[in-house]
Amino acid sequence: MAEDTLESNGITDRGQLALPRGAAGAILRALALGPKSVSELVEATGLTQPNVSNHLGRLRERTLVTFQKEGRQVIYRIASAGLAHFVLSHGEGPTSPPQDLQELRREFLEALLTLREEEAARVVDAALASGVQWKDLYLQVFTPTLERVGELWERGELGVATEHLVTGIVLRLLHRLSLQLPSEPYPNAPTVLVGCVEGELHTLGGRMVADFLLAQGWRVWYLNGLLPLEHLMEAVNRHLPDVVALCVTTEAGGAALERTVERLQRWRGEQPLPLIAAGGRYFEAGEAPPGVDIWGTDVEKVTAALDQQVRRVRSLSQRSVS
Hints:
By secondary structure, this protein is an alpha/beta fold.
């Protein structure tokens, strides 16, 4: 049946994993939740034993699952933790309704404020297993929760040390989720340097931008924070990216952004690339910073605009050469 067929190599033309659908997809989702025997897979998926065995053989050929004899049984496992996260966050079912996301945010915030990292991870894993997409976790759970943490800190209800510990937990969770993203960019993919302006300490926004562009098949160099301007320019000169994306969260960072943009504009001269992108809480006032090509506070919208703009500039450049 067409719905049970596997993609020829599991990779789309954008460099992203194309998950098997139908019976094969159901088996992968069951294994993403833990190792199982054939009989356990039959029970979990509702498929017949011959159907399960047939698809397991094809999944093994594509190295998506492994197996090991344990006594008289053969136990099947998904090939890697990264693949398990990918499968759970790209299920065929619908995402959870808004009220479920509200409950997720409540549970996640409670786990963070009590510094129970294992509970925060459990909330995330349960959300993925229920069909919530990783982008929804980033945009509708992580982001508003961190904004709430920031509000508590600003009101003096949360200490600096606790705020840093919370940030560390979320960064580690982001790293776990990033394992599901493509390990290689698609052919001739756009390139981006993602980092913070000089002196910026808040790196979570940049990390999210990097992950969204990875998911779009880009080649990403993530610089983290506390990078002096001279070293940023050294990286730009060495890698020649299509985009330089900078995170700015405070008014003090605004001055650093102006210096950075001025240097980048001098460096690129009359060339259209690299585009200069910036985002973060500094831009909540809604004013476009001079010299920045694309800016905003919504990670998804900014990265989508970057992808569209880079393609347009590249297309114009190719036409002028031909």
